[in-house]
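Practice problem. Given the sequence and the SMILES for magnesium ion, write out the predicted structure.
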Amino acid sequence: MTDDNEKVPEKGSDELAAAKARAKATAERKLAESSVGKASTDDEKNETKTDDPRAEEPKAEEPKPEEPKADEPKPDAEPTKDEPKKDEPKKEEPAPAAAKRSSSRGKDRPPMIVVKGLKKSFGDRVILKDVNYEIERGKVVVIMGGSGSGKSTMLKCLIGAHPIDCGEIWLDGAQLSGPDVDHLDSTKRHVIWNDARRKFGVLFQSAALFGSMTVGENVALPIRFHTDLAEETIDIMVKMKLDQVGLGHAEDLLPSEISGGMAKRAGLARAIALDPKVIFYDEPSAGLDPIVVTVVDHLIKDLSKALGITSVVITHVMESAFRIADEIVMLYQGEVIFRGTPEECQASDDDRVKQFIAGEVPVRDEDELPAFLDDVL
Ligand SMILES: Nc1ncnc2c1ncn2[C@@H]1O[C@H](COP(=O)(O)OP(=O)(O)OP(=O)(O)O)[C@@H](O)[C@H]1O
Ligand SMILES: [Mg+2]
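Answer key:
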């Protein structure tokens, strides 16, 4: 990826500044060249063809040309808010006292993720009513729930792609949304989210690779954007990340030249490019055959163990959930109805949980039927 003859500029030199500007310009140009949200693999193309009313709306995982970060949407979806530049000076962190408040069960360190009283609506439609849970460090937590139950919406709230109506979101002891930060101006909130974005990676359902960039360039993108590292260093990091997901041989291939399973792994390599503390996966098994699903499951589990990464995985696939989860969180009609180990999930007395495991549509009240079917049909 790097030109062998290219000289590595010294830190602090004008040359370094120029090299950084060049790298950023390249990243921006490549993003601009990639058509917005253009699917790069066959399964991605299929996913874009849908009758879902959301198809009309811009999706969080579809980066805008002016937004150089490939898979990390803006902290606020409100179009009126000013977006500061990435290199603006660091502003104050949320108060340590507030961070401590999220600590639970007497542990020294707070949970990696805390969600309290989260509410999110689209217009009159309440999608998340009152979501509460904590995710311990280093765990693999699987979020389950019927189609349309709000899993992806919740994930987008967690990564700052959707503003929330009310509630609190904490990551690694810092409040990202909630009373401590909501009153701050957009610059301060942006700094908080920018810090947070370096701590998590996201693997979207579609893998969201940029079709005009090689696999290696896709993986390099967040490193280029978030760091000042020399191209040679980035090149080494990219190779390491690709090796970690078993794609060492695919660095120079285009997304159109790799399979759906490889695209998922390439997306995963990009998600771990900055050594995140947390990886969010939205349906990592979608569009894959059962064997590749097993491979991806192992990869999630292995990465979590080897790198101590906290993993939040949204999946419909029960076998996957039981295979990889330390804990399962089940969403139903905008609320968490179950939290526990896979064994506890299988032994649950809750009819809705039992029906979900059995693959049945969990409807208890006939009045709910039309609205629910809107989402599943
Ligand atoms: N940007 C949006 N604007 C309006 N409604 C939306 C938007 N995004 C999601 N929704 C609605 O919110 C509800 C929950 O959608 P979401 O994508 O979170 O469900 P999900 O649980 O991830 O479903 P699936 O398992 O099918 O991926 C759906 O009814 C959907 O139509
Ligand atoms: Mg979803």
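Check your answer against the key. DSSP finds 14 helices and ten strands in the chain.
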